[in-house]
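Q: Got a minute? One more chain.
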Amino acid sequence: MADLLGSILSSMEKPPTVGDQESRRKAREQAARLKKMQEDEKRKKAEFRKQMEKEVSNFIQDSTLQKKKYEPMGKIERSILHDVAEVAGLTSFSFGEDEESRYVMLFKKEFAPTDEELEAYRKGEEWDPQKAEQRRRLKEQAALEEEAARQPEKRPASPSSNYRDKYSHLIGTSAAKDAAHTLQANQTYGCVPVANKRDTRSIEEAMNEIRAKKRQKKGEDDRGAGSSGTSS
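A: Always. Here it is, folded:
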């Protein structure tokens, strides 16, 4: 019985030593610090968001402003600012080559940046609309000149000799033959040119006049013959 009790007591968990108690204490303190840091981070994020909401609201209400540029900030702050801008109906972009220099710019919807303006900010340049317009015109002019240079020079095609002068004797003979053939065809099929129709009407009028004179003369002759028979 004594042996059984001894084995049971020896198998029971031994009380923690002084070293174990110290480790547990440090773990509890570390967990408490971590929780406090998380609460502080959460509080700071809430305060920063509240501050950005106020600034964004002032920016929207100021009719003289079209865009707003912020100083470089961390990734978490940029994320919060982008979210606030989206909720407010603004357009936002981040610019900057490295993480330390990245900043946020806000734009009102009616003044959204063009691709050229965004490209200038990405290059770290200030945006100047007048200079941009000058650069755009220079690019267009250069593109037109390049296109003109690629196209071969077009010259008007001209025959080595004057075809009509060279073959004028043949053309004249052929034209005369064509005219004679056309006239013969018109006479054969009753096709009379307009000019000939005018001449034909004139001839018909003349023939009618001649026929009328003949009838008149014949009538006079008949009356004269009748008079002679009566007197005899």
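A: The first helix runs from residue 2 to 11.
Q: Perfect, thanks.
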